[in-house]
Amino acid sequence: MAANFFPPASEASPDGLLCLGGNLSPPWLLDAYGHGIFPWPFQDDEPMMWWSPDPRAILPLDGLHISHRLARTVRCRKFQAKCDTAFAQVLAGCATGPGRRGGTWLTPEMIEAYLRLHRLGHAHSVEVWHAGQLAGGIYGVAMGGFFAAESMFYYLRDASKVALVYLVAHLRKRGYRLLDIQQWTSHTGKLGAIEIPREEYLQRLAKAVDLPVTFGEKLEGTVQDDM
Question: CA 73 to CA 159: how far, in whole Å?
Answer without folding.
Answer: 9
